[in-house]
Amino acid sequence: MPQKPIVYDAPTPEPRATTVEAIQAEILERLIYSIGKDPIVARPHDWLAATILTVRDRVMDRWMESSRETWRSSQKRVYYLSLEFLIGRLMRDAMSNVGLIEPVRDALKNLNVDLGDLVNLEPDAALGNGGLGRLAACFLESMSSVKIPAYGYGIRYVHGLFRQEMSEGWQVELPEEWLAHGNPWEFERRESAYEIGFGGSVEPVIDPDGIERQEWRPNDHVMAVAFDTPIVGWRGARVNTLRLWSAQPIDPILLDKFNSGDHIGALEESSRAEAITRVLYPADSTAAGQELRLRQEFFFSSASLQDIVRRHLQQYDELDSLPDKVAIQLNDTHPAISICEMMRILLDVHGLEWAHAWKLSRGVFGYTNHTLLPEALESWPVALLERLLPRHMQIIYAINAEVLTEARQRAQFTDGQIANVSLIDENGGRRVRMGQLAFVGSHSTNGVSALHTELMKKTVFSDLHRLYPERINNKTNGITPRRWLMQCNPGLTKLITDRIGPEFLDNIDLLQGLNAHADDQNFQKQFAAVKRDNKVRLAKVIKDRLGINVSPDAMFDVQIKRIHEYKRQLLNIIQTVAAYDEIRAHPERDWVPRVKIFAGKAAPGYWNAKLTIKLINDVAKTINNDPSVRGLLKVVFLPNYNVSLAEVIVPAADLSEQISTAGMEASGTGNMKFMANGAVTIGTMDGANVEMHKEVGDDNIVIFGLRTEEVNEKRSTSEVPRSSIDASPRLMEALESISSGVFSPDDPNRYRDLIGGLYDHDWFMVARDFDAYVAAQSKVDKLWSDPRRWSSMAIKNTARVGYFSSDRTIRQYAEDIWGVSVPET
């Protein structure tokens, strides 16, 4: 049937009133008629659902109008493809961005309900692992705030990343049940469902015009069904869409099997389909796990591209304008298979010639690289791709042939350079390099900090950079100041507003006005009082969750991030052991009281990361229960780190630990969140720390350790790490106490291999950077002992965080990569 024309100005209801009385009446109406509860017996979760629906209704008008405006104006759309979206709780974010916090709070108060209690009840969407997913969420919010028409595309994980609990100090992974009671923010779009194929064969077919084309005939199919969530921009400037795909079977039950008595086998197709969107990052240590990950990546990539092309044709009825109307950003290599899928759609479905399709495809794609770690740059066995996605493997070979021919003929590459740029890695089993595919299939490849981008040119993509020298560019990451300052730290936001006015809420660069007040003693006291209030709140969380009492007057020294060897939680905890030894050996000294706060999840199969968590908990148990320390040092590990927990920890931090091995952290965004909230950074010259150092100046950040070139030099020379240990009695003593079982009397050998690695290779420079780290921590103690100096540093960090707003990052993407015009603020 012919599709009805789109009506851009269909009638809509009048916008809903935002008075306290109107909101109160609607919450009651929703409670009774949507939730089905009498207010007399309603439980907190009932009030939460009713409140979310009331707020959501006031977002809908803006959502509809944003979509209509894009259709009316034929604006170019941005599509952000990411396997992760750590969006966090949405109710407070939406209320804040459309100015509803106070009327909703007052309406609930009239109903004897506390808004704060409800906010803490909302599930934290478990759709990501760490910085990658949180960056994607910040970018979506910023795209709405700066009025860029955009969709985020991802997977609607039923369980997402695991829920982390502790059992005798060990990490235990449990399912994250964020969808157990439904999600009132989302809308199922049954009309936006696409068939996704796997396996099968590729057959040549002859078109009516006599041209031979390839036709993929999959033998395994699932349906991708869309669920949409509104993403609200600041002051409701625009509401964009996060579209998540849920995998569903074509036939939910095989009745012939069921009726024959095979009741389990009858559900086999359902189980296979639903497994695709069951869990984020299934373990890939087995062949089955690898296949499931590839299925996930192709599933959401194919569904997203089918949706994008369908929307484009619906409006423009031709494909030549794709690069003018569509910008697709690949967030890391997870959606890199999209390049092959776009080519398949253009070649096989719409009949374009190769050169035409390749030009259009490269014109729409941009690729963001997030890592220089070889193990994190995805690659897939050729045999797996040939079996699961045979047509896409053909396209990969064809792309590779074109790239290698160009490299040989135009650039006169050597055999070694040809091997480096090839999409197929021939060493140790043939594998497809997804980073190379994303690079050659995009018109832009960007890094996420200045240092990372330069290293990318010199390391992982050095020969591709020689072949395409115009393609690599930098877009330093950013964070949304709405969630990571205004919402998570309302006390500081009010203090800043009182001091420099509210204009910074709309232009975060105006925080620079605080520079003039950094040495004002009265303002310093007010700033410190806000920080202390936040520390009191975090101390209560620590007490409630761990039963550990900590003093808000101690320095809160915080390292919260994914547990990984290059992030060097091990360096932090070894220094903590050395400090513990010093405090006991010299009780007469004037020690600065510290609370060492850790949080983060380790990948289920990452043994050294899980062992590091156990070590932190073992050290904490010993130190926290030793009366000779006199409370001068406490260590806590808060389990199940997520966005909501970060929103409590970040405003309370005094010291931000950003101590990754130089050259290994692409950017970091946690460092920016701490900076915004007035924490002082101790860190290496790595990732965005380099640019933070430039913004705040040498006097307002504590930098230590080897630089990137020094790390590379030490890795390539015969200098042995043991020499660093032998030269440092404090380090030697700390390592000996850990490896000999002082902190693990139940298993004295538990940490012998973990510590032994520092003697043998020390790839992450833990031993080599130890003394520099200790000296930097001593400098921190001296700075902390001068409250006026410390307060000045903290205030200047907040004042100079404007550059690290994701609004700035998004504007740069729009101008340099997407070709999208951004309205003036």
UniProtKB/TrEMBL annotation:
<keyword id="KW-0328">Glycosyltransferase</keyword>
<dbReference type="InterPro" id="IPR000811">
    <property type="entry name" value="Glyco_trans_35"/>
</dbReference>
<protein>
    <recommendedName>
        <fullName>Alpha-1,4 glucan phosphorylase</fullName>
        <ecNumber>2.4.1.1</ecNumber>
    </recommendedName>
</protein>
<dbReference type="InterPro" id="IPR011833">
    <property type="entry name" value="Glycg_phsphrylas"/>
</dbReference>
<keyword id="KW-0119">Carbohydrate metabolism</keyword>
<dbReference type="Pfam" id="PF00343">
    <property type="entry name" value="Phosphorylase"/>
</dbReference>
<keyword id="KW-0808">Transferase</keyword>
<keyword id="KW-0663">Pyridoxal phosphate</keyword>
<comment type="similarity">
    <text>Belongs to the glycogen phosphorylase family.</text>
</comment>
<comment type="function">
    <text>Allosteric enzyme that catalyzes the rate-limiting step in glycogen catabolism, the phosphorolytic cleavage of glycogen to produce glucose-1-phosphate, and plays a central role in maintaining cellular and organismal glucose homeostasis.</text>
</comment>
